[in-house]
Protein p34
Amino acid sequence: METGLKLAFGSIAVGVLVLGLKYLAFVWTGSVALYSDAVESVINVAAAVAALIAVWYSAQPADENHPYGHHKAEYFSAVLEGALIIVAAVAILHEAYAAYLNPRAIEAPLKGLLVNGFASAINGAWCWVLISRGKRMRSPALVADGKHLLSDVLSSGGVVLGVALAALTGWSVLDPLLAALVAVNILWSGWGLVRDSTAGLMDAAVTPQERATIMAAISANAQGAIEAHDLRTRHAGKATFVDLHLVVPGSMTVDASHAICDRIEAALKEAVHGAVVTIHVEPEGKAKHHGIPVLTPGAASRA
């Protein structure tokens, strides 16, 4: 089974385990703040299922209806996760307001907090796995899932501290206030996921650092050409699409120009993981003299 699918299945298993533990902590204590933590875990499970479907679908090969592949499916998963986070935040705020109007004492706080803390530790370890592996695999769905879990871990830490203070001081109002803070944190996390995923759906270009790497690879491997211009890039899940125009001498044969294109394509695929390269060859009369200069042999050593 592909690594991405294994991680997605793992997220579902971890999410169900953590949800059970956090709900148990809520039942034992009656704390609305711990309830908010459990509600977020419900969203974690739903998001993990969405991530699994997206990772599986995005790995499907290109077909007649989707000639560029299915890479963007992962962005839909991340947008859905952001929307689910917002729904969870609204539900938590509703429960927090009701508890603020009718504060109630927290029961068995130590037992509940220990169970909740153990669940948060599991989440912390798993979110590190998802973010590190997801970035290495260029998987927006896995990275989004990991970042969501990270926000859950941070808010859970605040909840545990706050519920402990509420139990020690007897200030029951701290419980719903903490739940409201968790909801605000969840909303911020959801906004970040929707923003980043929307950029991918809108064909956002690569970062300036990635663009510099691409330009350097083109310049160093285009010997025989005059220049490259009209460079365009976009991310789509694991794939990075690179389009450019390559200007060659008018007398150059098709075979020779094709060899240059092959050299550039191979260099880009080595420099940029998942690069999908399209090169349009043009005669020297099309040169714009403001594109990517060709690095002549030996120039790098002289620089």
Observations:
- The chain has two domains: 3-201, 208-302.
- Residues 298-303 have pLDDT under 50 and may be disordered.
- The radius of gyration is 26 Å.
